[in-house]
Amino acid sequence: MKIKKGIGLVLMILLFFGVFLTSSGAQVKAEDFYLHSGTWTDIFSKKETVDYPLLFLHGLAGNPASWEKTIKTISGNEYYEMRYFDHKRIFHNYHGEPPERWFWNLSYYTLNTVNEAISGDLTTYTDRLTEMIKLVKKFSGKDRVIIIAHSMGGLVARKYMTRDQQSWDSVYRLLSIATPHNGIDLPIGIINQLEDLKTDSYFLKELNEDWARMASLNPTKKWGVVGGIDSDSFLNKQLSDSKKTDSGGPGYITISSAIPYEWEEAIAQLDQATYDTEHFGFRMAVESSHTGIVFHAGTLEGIHWAVTADFQ
């Protein structure tokens, strides 16, 4: 067991380095429409934009800083942070002043990063997210939220939604960014987070079965997806289309996992958004690294879909 935990810690260290090394991979053009704060001032001034709280979730080894640039751009630097501390305490910086719009940057990790690396798991993170959503709904007085989730955070968000009908109904729309919906290829799953992320994990099998069941009972397409292909990756040049990845750390995330069911159609329309497909309200494959994708024009276009009633 000690050997397994030691290997797990090594994998986590490699993942952290992988995240940092890929952070500069995706370059976006300054003139891109969605990357400017003024664009979002205009978007949120329109009456068809819904006013549900917008929640941002990081992924594996992430933290609130992962989404900071994106949130500042769309919120005009007016947002709140919330972090799970322990089963009795959730920290936040909301002090009762009603904002014009609700933007929240959430973390389901505690500050004990070593403990999270060794014993954290996605079901635990879902429990924590459930408590934080309750707080956001209490503060805002709203009965729904919008979730924008990166990487593993997308699985946590989907798990929350499939808990029961009330949880499903409480999410107006979910946009998952570079999320391994079909898992990642890992030869071993030493620590709980990586075990849950393996392609054959019980967690993913149960999640995808529950999602299919809930989606069949609720025909409204409230799920949007954005997946990335790192065109700068030498490895991607050697891989088949379904195996191309965003170079996101140990195992990496393939485009076929980030955009399940429809990855072939998505990469045939690379960097082009498609709405109201068979499975998704929004779908887009982009050229980007795993971390660069959080501030990619395609992701922000997906956020526009998520906050707008009857987008088209």
List keywords for this structure.
single chain, 312 residues, alpha/beta, Rossmann fold, nine-stranded mixed sheet, 12 helices, disordered N terminus
Structure write-up:
With 312 residues, the protein is an alpha/beta fold. It has a single domain, classed as Alpha/Beta hydrolase fold, catalytic domain (Rossmann fold), CATH 3.40.50.1820. The protein contains twelve helices and nine strands. The chain has helices at residues 2-22, 37-44, 68-75, 113-119, 122-140, 152-161, 165-169, 192-197, 202-217, 255-258, 263-268, 297-307; strands spanning 54-57, 80-86, 89-92, 103-107, 145-150, 171-177, 223-229, 274-275, 282-287. Strands 3-2-4-1-5-6-7-9-8 form a nine-stranded mixed β-sheet, sandwiched between helices. Strand 8 (274-275) and strand 9 (282-287) form a beta hairpin. Helix 2 packs across helix 3 (68-75) and helix 5 (122-140) crosses helix 6. The radius of gyration is 18 Å and the shape is globular. The termini are far apart. Residues 1-31 have low confidence and may be disordered.
Topology:
Layout: H1 2-22, H2 37-44, E1 54-57, H3 68-75, E2 80-86, E3 89-92, E4 103-107, H4 113-119, H5 122-140, E5 145-150, H6 152-161, H7 165-169, E6 171-177, H8 192-197, H9 202-217, E7 223-229, H10 255-258, H11 263-268, E8 274-275, E9 282-287, H12 297-307
Parallel strand pairs: 1-4, 1-5, 2-4, 5-6, 6-7, 7-9
Antiparallel strand pairs: 2-3, 8-9
Q: Summarize this, please?
A:
The chain is 39% helix and 15% strand.
CATH class: Alpha Beta
Radius of gyration: 18 Å
Coarse shape: globular
Number of helices: 12
